[in-house]
Design goal:
Elements (H helix, E strand, L loop, with lengths): L2 H9 L20 H7 L2 H7 L19 E5 L5 E4 L3 E2 L7 E2 L7 E6 L6 E6 L5 E6 L9 E4 L4 E5 L1
Antiparallel strand pairs: 1-2, 1-9, 3-4, 4-8, 5-6, 6-7, 7-8
Length: about 150
């Protein structure tokens, strides 16, 4: 079974009725100028421009303390450290987000179909989710570290 079929089996069909992040109104909204003012250039490129940081470039990839990872754009809590694992990809990886913290859309960029993950509060692009994670979920939320902040417990 191919990856697209695996994703469809895990998440269901997400065809043309998929929510368009660019047109949705989120609880936290800012103008482009406001986002540029509060985010670093790299954070802006990832969170607002759907970019990807260079693998292995973020210190949060190596964060091992107990605590909470939040959205660097709006501060919403996204993942707990207990759900983080070493995937070997160069990006922080989690097997499960906090309930209601993220939303997913179909990403058809780069000639492939992937499932994009974004913050449910501000719509900021976080990364992607793949069906190759560890038990019990079998999911790997591959998240740009620059899109996150960390608060130790």
């Amino acid at each position: 079974m191919g990856l697209l079929q695996q994703l469809t089996a895990l998440f269901g069909s997400k065809g043309d009725d998929t929510m368009n992040v660019a047109t949705k109104t989120f609880p936290v909204t800012k103008t482009d100028e406001e986002w540029r003012r509060i985010l670093t250039a790299e954070q802006y490129q990832v969170l607002r421009g759907h970019g990807t940081e260079r693998p292995g470039s973020c210190a949060l990839n190596h964060e091992k303390r107990a605590g909470t990872f939040s959205c660097a754009g709006c501060g919403q809590k996204l993942f707990v450290a207990a759900k983080k694992f070493e995937s070997g990809t160069g990006w922080p990886s989690f097997d499960q987000p906090l309930p209601g913290a993220v939303e997913e859309t179909v990403d058809r960029s780069w000639g492939m179909v992937r499932t994009e993950v974004h913050c449910s509060s501000c719509g900021g692009h976080l990364g992607h989710v793949f069906p190759d994670g560890p038990p019990p979920t079998g999911l790997r939320y591959c998240i740009n570290g620059v899109a996150l902040t960390f608060e130790p417990a």
